[in-house]
Design a protein that fits this description.
The structure holds two protein chains of two kinds. Chain A is of the alpha+beta class. Chain A is built from twelve helices and 13 strands. In chain A, helix 3 runs antiparallel to helix 12. The N and C termini of chain A lie far apart (68 Å). By secondary structure, chain B is an alpha+beta fold. In chain B, 51% of the residues lie in helices and 14% in strands. The chains are: A alpha+beta, B alpha+beta.
Chain lengths: 378, 1317
């Protein structure tokens, strides 16, 4: 039987039997779909049709470009490098003196030549810091950070070699948490008559709402005493304090500490900034008026253990440096003060790019128009 | 060419061998039943040379009988396979392991597996372990579901088949019981009724037909719808009465199951030791249908998978597609690209790591940079895996299925006559249709209708032009389109075979007799008055006898089955009564020219008084009422003759003619009921022709034929043997006892070349020999004339055997017939022995009309740049004529004839032709458009054989510069050799189209094999990749579907590669900003789904639905077809162009967001978000630019794809809190998409990325939009001009080379006159 043939392999062959074939089936359906005659738009991209498109692109992009440039230009931004590369700077000496003193302070004076009128965002910036390194990125335990008690005691293998310390689980585990930025920054305005006035910095609201309320949770719920919750865990190697002592405010302590949360969101590029504090706009006064300012940097001593030889580190770490270390990888540290707009921070690139693409489109439009004209009237 | 089913088949074979071994071993102890073998072995004279071991291996033994030997029978049946069939590949338990095993034999899946496993190595792990499994799982699941559905379909089908009910004899109850097919076993007696489907291979033991025949229809097996006759095993009496299996105690020995449908060998041994040979004529094959026979009983010989039908089961062939070969090169380049990228990352990572000391973000500082680089290499392979477009292979399969769906649904490829659509049997070579460079075509049935209509004949050296008939044929041709299948009417419901194409519409088959011939036939009935010139009378009498013999041969020398819608075929035959006394007009001949025509010696001729309504017969009855009993005395005959003559004289001639014509119509009324079902259309045409001259074949049974003869009425002709047609012998013969003379006569019908050689000058009287020579010469002349006219010629010859001669031959022939092992060879020899010293009777010319639309199609194909070769088994003249008729040869063309007598001459000739072609080719090469007028090589089979063997290169050189090549007299093997030679040596895409079994090898050899489901069974269709019903369908199939399929697939592949390169490069650029560490800025789910879901459907739609040029334009301008495959040269250019564009787009797509976000507080995933979104937009819009047509389906799919991405990432970013560590997307996309910056970046990126491609398209379209049209126009004008010029020249120069276009009818007539004088 022909059907056997159809059956033999794959079975895809249509059964052929001239007589018994169902005539109704055989009579091909004349639908336009089956006959491939569906009404179709044929995008024949010829000069005439395309001129319009180019013109529209040009017409749209140039105003957008202008708007973007203007917006970008209106954004105030100041970058203060406090790496301490210069020997004269106080931060240099701080870096040099690796004493057992609890802290080392350095100050960086700077001058604002424009007043910042709207809310100012204060960032710390690092360069050459590869927070996006593959092994680094994965060296965290999201479940632990989400308040899972089991994960707290059993950190994921991804965290290694920062998973256990003295046979105690590290909370929060992993390299990201371990390398948390820990310079304390303060801003003072030098008012000639009064002296240094501390600028009020708000640390609340610097983390994403979703992070603070969904992604990061302290183990055991909100009302728990964090010290007891984190009992039996160990602090990360480089940390001075356990995670339960990050802040006095219980709303900002433990895993839901906003500085911690901000740090835990990996930056996309090796040179990045992270929001540190917000200087809210006060009534009628410019947020940061034109004038002299001083940046106070308080270094905590960072315990550096760069080569953990085993998963369970028992040796007492040696203090090596007092500041947040970036020099080993030719990094820099900044404080950035910036206002914001609908398009985010200052970025002249987008405006320029829009203008360029818009102008190119218009130029091509002209060229094609001429070509088209010539083609039609040879 | 890869046969997918091969391993499976091999496995089956292995299993069957094992089974057989096991059976043999198991049987060894119980030898009692085999004791007969031993004495058989010693006894059997035929088989004495076969060692015992071989005997057992090649035979199976079946014990019949359900009574006392039941145990034995059961034992036996256990050894053989039951009738249950199982065509499924898997069972529920074995599905998963077996299917996985099958799937992992594909390299693509192994690659996926490798990647998945690689991801489990901790140091190189790139994603979550589960995620890299997804592509693999998806691909496996898709294919597994497809396989499972197919298998389930097969299972249902098997179940359906297995549970069919059949009546099987039950030994206990002594009655036939209903049983399922699957319970039928070897050795069972099965009773079948009319229209039952045969459940297993059954040996026919009993038929309700008194003559022990049974008719089966094998349409299910080979597609042939004519009835075939099967014969009860000879030596079994009891036909017609109830058959009791109890009384049957024979033992059947036959060969082991094999797949040869036409062969069955064995013997049946009765309890008394007599043996009867069995052959295929006794076997009812599984799957066939019993027709027109009330009941039959048979014993099951082979069951289930051992039946011939199932053994013949080979699945669809797998041909490699050309495009896929090229694709593999592209994929290889992708691999190279991947390697380079991974290496870059590895080296970069090593260097980067070396520079760093004590960096807080380096978690693993113990690993030396070099080793870390090495690890990164493998990580990158996982990360960039998408670059290797493995899913492309799956996509291509899906796209091809879609393309095939559309091809099959095309109304333009639907033939209303046959109610059949194009069948796509090969699923993976659709795009090959778009690249055909050489087309090899069969002639008969492919270019022509293969509806044979008798046109003219030449008997005894005299041509009968049948002018009236020719006029009618012409008329018919013009009306052909209106004539719809005429057999649809009342009769079709009774006999389904009416729908069979061989039974032509009546108008077409009907032959208007030639008046001359009618006159001669009537003169036969009323011999002229004895005239003075004796020789003249002798000649005319000889001639008359020849005419008579000629038509008798036409009527009986065939295997035509006669059936009548009112009566089953067997009863038609019963109407005859033979053996009644009758005297013949042959007596006159016998008295005067016995020496030349010994056949015509009188014998017992009986007339049936009542039956015929022929005037002649009535006259005869009147004349011979007092005719004496049969005698052989010449004197007696003479008296009768004179009396008859006198009687004749009285009747005026005109009146007789009138009567005759009236009688004709009467008879036609009676005969219209007869239906002829022939194996080949030629036979049917000849039988119909004979009928026009009142030589009507009325019935056929195993050993006799019933024929209406003019002047004789219905007579029975004892059929002694049929030596069936054989392509080696190129002839068939019947051995009959002549109804008139009672002598044993061999009538042979066959190809002219063979018969003319065999019909040698008989020894005997000099004058007769001379005369005969003259007849032969004339006949040869007519043959050539017919061939020039494009007619198919067949020669008819006869031979009278002396009784002793016959006896001698018969003895050896019987021996051959009963032989089991070399039956075929022995029968062949036997036939050869018989068919010698034939006497030529005449020749027939059968017209085979050109299919409609063939010339147009030929023209279009040639304009499309396809070289057409015609490979035919026909005569050279016929082939050339058909080539002229179908426009392959144009008036301006020069014919190069290659007919050589020897190998050396062949070599020489080819060299000569080569020079000639080169000399001429140069001037014309300057303007390629002029190639439309060129050389045509015509080569005959003998020369072709030498050319193929020795001079392949020069043959190719000559033929490749010819516009067309015609190979005539070629064998099937040569056809495939030619195709293979061209395909392999010239490295071109070849297409072979044919309709008959002789084209099968050619169809299989070509890159694309097309079968025409025509008049000659289904073998060609079964072997083909595509089966069409008309040659003209090739036009749309190639020009439109081929073009589309190719351009669609080629574009889709490019698009697919573009898509992958573009997307993967985004990840690659990121490596420069993450220390080459293998980081990605995307959530890994999005990364995997990007290729698997979000951008998978648009390319499929693009590959299935895109139309680069509208169908009607493709049909109008075949030159566009050519442009597709010339652009192949630039294919690699297109590949690199695409890759470069992909690089550019990915650069834009990455660096615009990079600069937009550089230095900001952007997080890793937030950075990836606009990149992914714009990449998606770019990829989708890129397709819009590249698409030539957009329908609502395109739009829908594009919108859905885009929508699915945004829906997925948004939902994911809301819901997935910890589900995808370490790249948790929670909040990212929602936040990003709430910023205007996101849209600003996406817009800029998309526009900038697509601008160059956009502009390129514009410029390309502007430059190319009108180019083909102008080119085509210019082409045509120039060609027309050139053709005019060439025609002018050729008229002067090439007359010698040219074959006359039309045969010179006048000269033919002249020659016939000179014969008749």
């Amino acid at each position: 039987m022909s059907r056997f043939t159809a059956n033999a392999d794959g079975g895809q062959v249509s059964v052929f039997n001239p007589r018994q074939a169902d005539t109704q089936k055989k009579k091909s359906h004349k639908s336009s779909f089956r006959q491939q005659k569906l009404p179709a738009w044929k995008p024949v991209l010829t000069t005439g049709a395309v001129c319009l498109a180019l013109f529209i692109i040009g017409l749209l992009f140039i105003p957008i470009g202008i708007a973007l440039s203007a917006t970008s230009a209106n954004i105030n931004e100041v970058k203060i490098d406090y790496t301490g590369m210069d020997k004269s700077s106080s931060c240099f000496s701080c870096w040099k003196s690796s004493s057992w003193n609890n802290t080392c302070k350095c100050t960086v004076p700077f001058f604002l030549d424009r007043s910042f009128d709207s809310t100012v965002f204060m960032y710390y910036g690092l360069s050459n810091f590869y927070q996006n390194h593959r092994r680094f990125v994965s060296s965290r335990h999201d479940s632990q950070l989400n308040g899972n008690m089991e994960s707290l005691m059993e950190p994921s293998k991804d965290c290694e070699p920062y998973a256990f310390r003295d046979n105690k689980p590290i909370a929060p585990c992993g390299a990201i948490a371990n390398s948390m930025f820990n310079d304390t920054l303060d801003l003072f305005r030098n008012v000639p008559t009064v002296g240094d006035v501390r600028i009020p910095l708000t640390g609340k609201g610097i983390a994403w709402w979703t992070d603070k309320h969904m992604k990061f949770k302290n183990p055991g719920g909100q009302d728990q005493n964090l010290t007891t919750v984190f009992q039996g865990t160990s602090r990360p190697l480089n940390w001075r304090r356990p995670v339960s002592e990050l802040d006095q405010d219980p709303e900002n302590n433990g895993f839901i500490n906003e500085d911690f949360i901000v740090w835990m969101r990996n930056a996309a590029l090796p040179t990045f900034r992270k929001l540190y504090r917000i200087i809210h706009k006060t009534k009628k006064m410019p947020t940061l008026a034109r004038g002299n300012y001083t940046l106070h940097v308080v270094y905590s001593i960072l315990h550096r253990v760069l080569h953990p030889t085993s998963n369970h580190i028992s040796s007492v770490p040696k203090p090596l440096q007092s500041d947040y270390p970036v020099r080993s990888f030719q990094g820099r540290k900044w404080v950035i003060l910036s206002t914001s707009s609908w398009m985010g921070g200052r970025n002249p690139f987008l405006g320029v790019a829009y203008l360029v693409v818009g102008s190119v489109s218009l130029f091509l439009w002209v060229v094609l128009l001429v070509l088209h004209h010539q083609n039609n009237n040879p | 060419m890869k046969n997918r089913s091969q391993p499976a088949a091999r496995m089956e074979r292995l299993q069957s061998v094992q089974r057989r071994c096991w059976q043999l071993l198991a049987r060894e102890p119980g030898r009692s039943r085999y004791s007969t073998h031993d004495d058989l072995h010693t006894k059997g004279s035929l088989d004495s040379h076969i060692p015992l071991q071989k005997w057992r291996e090649t035979r199976r033994s079946i014990l019949a009988g359900r009574g006392h030997r039941q145990h034995e029978v059961k034992d036996m049946a256990r050894g053989y396979q039951g009738n249950a069939i199982c065509t499924t590949k898997y069972s529920i338990l074995t599905f998963i392991p077996l299917n996985l095993f099958q799937q992992f034999r594909r390299a693509a899946n192994l690659y996926f597996l490798f990647l998945a496993l690689l991801n489990w190595v901790p140091v190189v792990e790139a994603f979550q372990k589960e995620i890299t499994m997804i592509p693999l799982l998806v691909v496996l699941a898709v294919i597994a579901v497809k396989d499972a559905l197919e298998d389930y379909r097969r299972y249902l089908f098997d179940k359906n088949i297995n549970n069919k009910v059949v009546q099987v004899y039950c030994g206990k109850k002594q009655a036939y019981m209903e049983r399922c097919w699957k319970d039928v076993q070897v050795g069972d007696f099965v009773r079948l009724s009319c229209n039952d489907i045969i459940p297993a291979d059954i040996l026919l033991l009993h038929s309700s037909d008194a003559r022990g025949v049974c008719y089966i229809e094998t349409a299910n097996l080979d597609g042939e719808t004519n009835l075939k006759q099967r014969q009860v095993v000879s030596g079994l009496p009891l036909q017609g009465v109830e058959f009791t299996p109890e009384s049957f105690h024979g033992r059947i020995e036959c060969e082991n199951p094999n797949n040869d449908l036409g062969r069955f060998r064995g013997f049946m041994e009765h309890p008394n030791g007599t043996r009867v040979g069995l052959h295929s004529n006794n076997l009812l094959l599984r799957g066939c249908t019993i027709r027109t026979t009330e009941t039959v009983v048979g014993i099951v010989v082979y069951a289930g998978h051992e039946t011939k039908a199932l053994m013949n089961n080979s699945g669809p062939r797998y041909k490699w597609s050309q495009l896929e070969k090229r694709l593999n090169v592209d994929v290889l380049w992708c691999v190279v690209l991947l390697f380079v990228m991974c290496l870059t990352a590895a080296v970069g990572h090593g260097l980067w790591l070396k520079k760093l000391q004590n960096a807080v973000f380096v978690t693993d500082e113990e690993t030396p940079p070099a080793l870390a680089g090495f690890y990164v290499f493998w990580t990158m392979i996982i990360v960039l895996q998408v670059l290797i477009p493995i899913s492309l292979y799956v996509s291509i399969e899906i796209v091809k299925l879609g393309q095939i769906y559309f091809i099959q649904n095309d109304m333009a490829l639907y033939d209303q006559h046959a109610d059949c659509r194009i069948q796509c049997r090969a699923l993976n070579i659709t795009e090959n249709l778009g690249q055909i460079q050489y087309l090899f075509s069969d002639k008969t049935g492919t270019l022509t209708e293969n509806k044979m209509v008798f046109c003219r004949c030449s008997i005894h050296g005299i041509e009968y032009p049948h002018a009236e008939n020719a006029r009618r044929l012409k008329l018919y041709e013009t009306e052909k389109n209106d004539v719809q299948s005429a057999c649809g009417g009342d009769s079709s419901c009774i006999n389904p075979s009416l729908a069979h194409p061989h039974t032509l519409p009546v108008e077409a088959k009907e032959v208007i007799p030639d008046p001359d011939l009618v006159k001669k036939l009537s003169r036969l009935r009323s011999p002229p008055l004895p005239q003075g010139v004796c020789s003249c009378e002798t000649t005319s009498l000889q001639e008359a006898a020849s005419v008579m013999d000629f038509f008798l041969a036409l009527a009986i020398c065939n295997t035509v089955v006669v059936s009548s819608p009112r009566q089953p075929p067997n009863t038609v035959a019963e109407a005859q009564t033979s053996g009644e006394d009758m005297k013949m007009m042959f007596h006159g001949v016998s008295s005067s020219s016995l020496s030349a025509f010994p056949t015509l010696a009188p014998s017992e001729i009986r007339e049936k008084p009542r039956c015929s309504n022929s005037v002649l017969t009535r006259e005869k009855t009147a004349t011979f009422t007092c005719s004496p009993p049969p005698g052989r005395t010449v004197n007696h005959e003479v008296t009768v003759e004179t009396s008859q003559c006198r009687r004749r004289l009285d009747s005026p001639h005109e009146e007789h003619m009138e009567n005759n014509s009236k009688n004709m119509t009467d008879e036609r009324d009676a005969d219209d009921a007869l239906l002829y079902e022939a194996e080949s259309p030629d036979e049917a045409a000849l039988v119909h022709a004979a009928r026009a001259y009142h030589c009507t074949l009325r019935g056929r049974c195993a050993d006799s034929l019933t024929v209406n003869l003019p002047g004789l009425g219905t007579v029975g002709v004892q059929l002694l043997h049929v030596l069936p047609f054989d392509s080696n012998r190129k002839r068939m013969s019947v051995v009959v006892r002549h109804p008139v003379t009672g002598q044993v006569v061999v009538y042979t019908k066959g190809a002219d070349s063979v018969i003319m050689d065999l019909a040698e000058t008989p020894k005997g009287a000099e004058q007769a020999a001379e005369n005969y020579d003259y007849i032969r010469q004339q006949t040869q002349k007519h043959l050539d004339g017919y061939a020039r006219e494009g007619l198919r010629t067949l020669c008819i010859a006869k031979k009278v055997l002396e009784e002793e001669e016959y006896e001698a031959w018969l003895q050896r022939h019987t021996l051959a017939e009963s032989s089991i092992d070399d039956r075929e060879e022995l029968l062949f020899d036997s036939a050869e022995r018989l068919e010698t010293n034939l006497t030529l009777l005449g020749t027939t010319g059968i017209v085979d009309q050109l299919q409609d639309g063939v010339p147009e199609t030929m023209d279009v194909l040639q304009r499309a740049g396809i070289k057409v070769w015609v490979l035919t088994g026909d005569k050279q003249e016929t082939a050339i004529n058909v080539a002229y008729a179908c426009g392959l040869i144009r008036p301006g063309d020069r014919l190069l004839m290659a007919n050589c007598e020897s190998k050396e001459a062949c070599t020489e000739l080819l060299e000569e032709l080569k020079l000639e072609v080169q000399r001429e080719a140069y001037p014309s090469r300057r303007t390629p458009e002029e190639s439309s007028s060129g050389f045509i090589l015509i080569i005959d089979g003998q020369t072709l054989a030498w050319a193929l063997k020795e001079e392949a290169r020069s043959f190719l050189e000559v033929s490749s510069s010819c516009k067309a090549v015609i190979c005539c007299r070629s064998t099937p093997l040569q056809k495939s050799q030619v195709v293979r030679l061209v395909r392999d040596q010239l490295n071109v895409m070849t297409l072979a189209v044919g309709d008959g079994a002789n084209d099968v090898s050619m169809i299989q050899a070509a890159d694309v094999g097309i079968g025409i489901s025509g008049q000659e069974g289904m073998q060609a269709v079964m072997a083909s990749d595509f089966a069409i019903s008309r040659f003209k369908h090739l036009r749309k199939l190639l020009l439109v579907h081929g073009h589309w399929c190719f351009s669609r697939l080629a574009n889709m592949i490019l698009y697919f590669i573009y898509k992958n390169v573009m997307f993967v490069n985004l990840l690659f650029w990121y490596q420069f900003f993450c220390g080459f560490s293998g980081s990605v800025m995307t959530n890994s789910w999005v990364l995997i789904f990007f290729n698997l879901i979000f951008t998978s459907a648009p390319p499929l739609i693009y590959g299935i639905l895109d139309k680069d040029v509208a169908a009607d334009r493709l049909m109008r301008m075949p030159e566009l077809y050519h442009s597709v495959h010339t652009s192949q040269v630039y294919a690699s250019l297109a590949f690199w162009f695409t890759v470069l564009d992909a690089f550019y787009q990915s650069l834009v797509c990455f660096f615009v967001p990079y600069f937009a976000y550089a230095g900001s507080d952007v997080g890793e995933l937030s950075f990836g978000s606009p990149i992914n979104a714009s990449a998606l937009l770019i990829i989708l819009l890129h397709q819009v630019i590249e698409s030539h047509t957009l329908t609502w389906i395109h739009v829908g799919v594009l919108v859905l794809s885009g929508g699915s991405y945004f829906a997925f990432v948004l939902i994911f970013s809301v819901c997935c809190v910890t589900c995808s560590p370490p790249t948790n997307p929670v909040g990212v996309e929602v936040l990003q998409m709430s910023h205007p910056l996101f849209y600003i970046v996406c817009a800029l990126t998309t526009v900038t990325a697509l601008l160059p491609r956009f502009l390129f398209r514009v410029l390309y379209n502007t430059m190319h939009a009108s180019a083909p049209r102008q080119a085509a126009y210019g082409d045509r004008a120039r060609r027309a001009k050139y053709r005019r010029r060439m025609r002018h020249q050729n008229l002067k120069l090439c007359v010698a080379n040219r074959q006359p276009e039309h045969p010179d009818a006048a000269s033919l007539e002249l020659s016939t006159e000179s014969v008749v004088f």
